[in-house]
């Protein structure tokens, strides 16, 4: 069996498995993106989150938040209200921490060149302790301030998901055209200067295309994408 067939088999097996996330389904804001990737032969997704605000209750002896060892007091994928946080904090027994986590996507790629298209990172998060040993350590005014910041990050996160999807869609379409017509790129490069003088609008469109490609490749403050290459020993 060739590697393409092996990858298709692996993809089919993974996508047929039940969704084991807490929600049990793909978040609404990334459904279109996940479906788009899963229709491409060289990709498939294994997990995703559109971004969320959560309140975790951790142990009283440690400072590092580890979700697997925490109680989940509150989680939402939309803007959060202060009253909801205040009510949830009353259930805290340890060190409660408010977090905003941006969009994350785990993607399996058939080849390294496929993974390069998706290689972006994120620092668009928020993590602030609110209580210690069950005792609230901040004022409600400060909680309100934090939620305004978290909610703004949530809105910006949605815009970044849309921008990423549009850039990815464009990049994969251009890759497809290049694979079908390998001489196109060479021809475009050789005629760019000449066309720029004769057709300013067309030249401007080419510049926009290059800017979109650069945005997809170099915008390392947008999103969290975890990429795994198809293993040799599968």
Q: How does this structure look, described?
A:
It is a single chain. Strand 7 (131-132) and strand 8 form a beta hairpin. The protein is 47% helix and 20% strand. The protein has helices spanning 3-15, 31-38, 82-89, 112-117, 140-180, 183-198, 200-218; strands at 43-49, 52-58, 71-76, 95-101, 104-109, 126-129, 131-132, 135-136, 224-229. The chain has a domain at 3-156: SSo0622-like fold (2-Layer Sandwich), CATH 3.30.1960.10. Helix 6 (183-198) crosses helix 7 (200-218). The chain starts with a helix and ends in a 5-residue tail after the last strand. Strands 3-2-4-6 form a four-stranded antiparallel sheet, with helices on one face. The longest helix is centred in the last third of the chain and has 41 residues, at 140-180. The protein has 234 residues and is an alpha+beta fold. The relative contact order is 0.15. One of its GO terms (molecular function) is methyltransferase activity. Pfam families: TYW3. Residues 183-205 are annotated as: Disordered. Pathway: tRNA modification; wybutosine-tRNA(Phe) biosynthesis. One of its GO terms (biological process) is methylation.
């Amino acid at each position: 069996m060739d590697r393409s067939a092996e990858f298709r088999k692996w993809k089919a097996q993974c996508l047929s498995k039940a969704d084991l996330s807490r929600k049990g389904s793909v978040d609404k804001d990334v459904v279109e993106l996940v479906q788009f990737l899963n229709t491409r032969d060289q990709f498939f997704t294994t997990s995703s989150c559109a971004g969320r605000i959560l309140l975790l209750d951790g142990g009283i002896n440690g400072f590092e938040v580890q979700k697997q060892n925490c109680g989940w007091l509150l989680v939402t994928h939309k803007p959060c209200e202060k009253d909801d946080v205040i009510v949830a904090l009353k259930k805290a027994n340890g060190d409660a921490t408010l977090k905003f986590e941006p969009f994350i996507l785990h993607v399996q790629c058939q080849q390294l060149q496929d993974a390069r298209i998706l290689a972006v990172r994120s620092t668009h998060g928020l993590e602030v302790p609110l209580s210690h040993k069950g005792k609230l350590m901040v004022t409600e005014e400060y909680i309100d301030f934090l939620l305004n910041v978290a909610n703004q990050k949530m809105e910006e996160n949605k815009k970044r998901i849309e921008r990423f999807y549009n850039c990815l869609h464009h990049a994969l379409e251009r890759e497809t055209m290049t694979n079908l017509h390998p001489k196109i790129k060479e021809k475009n490069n050789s005629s760019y200067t000449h066309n720029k003088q004769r057709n300013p609008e067309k030249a401007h469109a080419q510049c926009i295309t290059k800017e979109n490609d650069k945005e997809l490749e170099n915008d390392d403050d947008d999103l969290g994408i975890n990429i795994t290459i198809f293993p040799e020993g599968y």
